[in-house]
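Archive maintenance. Older records in this collection stored only the sequence; we are now back-filling the structure field for every entry so that each record is complete. The fields below show one back-filled record exactly as it appears after the update. Entries are processed alphabetically, and Alcohol dehydrogenase 6 is next in the queue.

ARCHIVE ENTRY
Title: Alcohol dehydrogenase 6
Organism field: Seriola lalandi dorsalis
Length field: 373
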Amino acid sequence: TATVIKCKAALAWEPGKPLAIEDVEVDPPKVHEVRIKIVATGVCHTDWEYLYGQGMKVRPFPLVLGHEAAGVVESVGPEVTKFSPGDKVIPLFLPQCGECERCLSPKTNHCRKNWANMQVGVLADGTSRISCKGQQVYQFLGISSFCQYTVVPDTSLAKIRCDAPLDKVCLLGCGVSTGYGAAVNTGKVKKQSSCAVFGLGAVGLAAVMGCQVAGAKRIIGVDINPDKFEKAAVFGATECVNPKDHKKPIQEVLAEMTDGGVDYALECVGDPAIMTAAFESTKDAWGSCVIAGWTETGMMNVVVEKILMGRTLSGTYFGGWKSVEDVPKLVDDYMNKKLKLDEFITHNLPLDQINVAFGLLKSGNSIRTVISL
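Back-filled structure field:
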């Protein structure tokens, strides 16, 4: 029978404070749960934002952050049929139960299995599986990948091929899937079209890649950090613009560059003012803006006439992918060289350097740091 595992985790004791490496205890999986040995985890801007930023709803502390990861099944709880010890897996902050109205509809990927609980850091029974010094530790988005072991529901887990390199495919657990899907699924970018991608972090670069795969002829990267422009070109950007180089608002600059606006704009920052700029940079009559950047508290301004004139505005969550079934296909695409992942990874660090990884992210010096556990 499975027993409690003692291991290391990067723990957030309170908001605004660096993470602390602590000894934690991870309980065995309960019914319909799977315990995973996390091998590699990406450090995502949402993790940083939750600890230090303003754009997130309050969730309880102490907690273990991390939600973009890959690992190996260590043990399974009762009634788990689709996973066995040794399986390579990617945990999912977006479940796919396969049975609800949303899972049965092709219109959405928004399954709500265990949703309310996972949003506040616990599993189906209202408790978490991680504790430290006798105290319950909450699991960020129900995952907590900054921990050597974690437990997730069996509906929030994708089984992937056994030859996939976990230190690369971990990026498909959040950022790359989100940006890539924003272009190919939600935006449905067409061949020969013009696109602008706002924000050239991991999500934005993945959106650039999606636009290129879709056959767009112009892909304009927009970022206030020109150090990102060379990387954007690798992923398919045809040109890049720094808003700081212009006196006019960026939407006016883009309209001039593209004879009235781009066909598609993808916002990958999570800033409401940039969302408005992205929307206004699209062509009237058929321009389409997709919001992929994350904020839970922001409000964006939309001039009604700009919608009336034929533009569309939409949002994407996890790039529109049905998580359990699509993530293994994205892994296959990477293995078949149809999808870039290695190029996103700028740094590799051990778990005890997690605060360094946060610093690299915030300073704009990294695209993705992969933490090995």
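Update note: The CA atoms of residues 285 and 308 lie 9 Å apart. The radius of gyration is 20 Å.
Entry marked complete.
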